[in-house]
């Protein structure tokens, strides 16, 4: 009782070899037309994408923004205990350390912010454990999010150091502007 499925429909195709060849030719022609239309759509889409203007923050020039400097948010009960100690240990270190230039771009398929900035240390001592915070905003200037990062690197006394492509975190897709500030540093 074995079913012979290999013979199903073979009689119908056996006499119609020309019909099968014509069907294959029509299918390949339709596939070729679809491929051409897809290629044309891809070319037009890339052309439109290339004509779109660049966002302000993705260029290599420093971003000049009207955004205010970001202050770290500390709960009030913690601020009374920790803030005086933090101010005493870091205020002397960051008063003469500043970000002299900065740019940013998107990375990681557009979801991560990569910041390039130059830190200038005018102190008579080296500083390390630099903490930066970056504020991201929409094109109209409305605030979106803050991201911070601690850089376990040292900037020597009376010198400057450029940090290239520092990943500060995942950002909103609507972010168009960034402003980074140095909020903490320690004496090396």
UniProtKB/TrEMBL annotation:
The chain crosses the membrane at residues 35-54. Keywords: Membrane, Transmembrane, Transmembrane helix. The keyword Transmembrane helix applies. This is Uncharacterized protein. It comes from Bradyrhizobium cosmicum.
């Amino acid at each position: 009782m074995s079913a012979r499925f290999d013979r199903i429909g073979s009689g119908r195709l056996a006499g119609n070899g020309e019909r099968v060849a014509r069907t294959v030719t029509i299918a390949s022609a339709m596939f070729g037309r679809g491929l051409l239309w897809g290629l044309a759509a891809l070319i037009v889409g890339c052309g439109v994408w290339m004509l779109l203007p660049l966002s302000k923050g993705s260029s290599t020039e420093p971003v000049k923004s009207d955004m205010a400097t970001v202050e770290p948010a500390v709960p009030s009960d913690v601020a009374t205990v920790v803030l005086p100690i933090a101010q005493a240990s870091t205020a002397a270190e960051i008063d003469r350390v500043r970000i002299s230039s900065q740019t940013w771009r998107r990375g990681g398929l557009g979801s991560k912010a990569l910041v390039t900035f130059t830190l200038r240390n005018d102190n008579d001592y080296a500083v390390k454990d630099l903490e930066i915070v970056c504020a991201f905003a929409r094109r109209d200037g409305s605030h979106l999010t803050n991201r911070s990062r601690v850089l376990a690197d040292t900037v020597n006394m009376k010198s400057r150091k450029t940090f290239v492509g520092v990943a500060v975190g995942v950002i909103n897709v609507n972010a168009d502007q960034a402003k980074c500030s140095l909020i903490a540093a320690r004496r090396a």
